[in-house]
Specification:
Elements lengths: L1 H35 L27 H15 L2 H14 L7 H16 L1 H5 L9 H9 L1
Helix pairs in contact: 2-3, 2-4, 3-4, 4-6
């Protein structure tokens, strides 16, 4: 009888230990899933679930030179190519790692200047930023 009682006690301990390890994990997971189902905004928007977004594809990060080019193209449209070229020179001076992309960006600015101002007016903004890349971009667009 004592052997059976000892066996029952050992089994109860094993079950207790298993529950002590598994139960907190189950509670945390069920709580997390419950929180994602609540409409926290208070509006009548649809309920978000944990799987509402495709996270298998990584977010696209833009390279610094692409962000700079886009910013300078916007500056060219809002102000003029001379301002954009000055900003390009300042950025390259501040961050020398952009120097290898300077000609590419300046050519893009030259092409955009021709589209906006025409070839002769765009050429009037040329300056020796990144050698003659701006002028090359103007000439390529003509």
């Amino acid at each position: 009888m004592t052997a059976t009682l000892t066996h029952v006690n050992q089994s109860a301990r094993r079950i207790g230990r298993t529950l002590a390890l598994v139960l907190p994990v189950v509670l945390v997971l069920s709580g997390t899933l419950a929180v994602t189902r609540v409409n926290w905004s208070g509006g009548s928007q649809s309920v978000l679930t944990a799987s509402s977004e495709d996270v298998s594809t990584p977010a696209k990060t833009r390279a610094p030179q692409e962000a700079l080019r886009d910013r300078l193209l916007l500056e060219l449209q809002e102000k003029n190519p001379g301002v954009a070229l000055t900003t390009l020179q300042q950025e390259v001076d501040a961050r020398p790692s952009l120097a290898k992309h300077c000609a590419w960006i300046a050519r893009a600015l030259g092409r955009a200047a021709v589209r906006q101002y025409g070839p002769s007016r765009a050429q009037s903004y040329a300056r020796p930023v990144c050698d003659t890349a701006f002028a090359t971009g103007v000439a390529q667009q003509v």
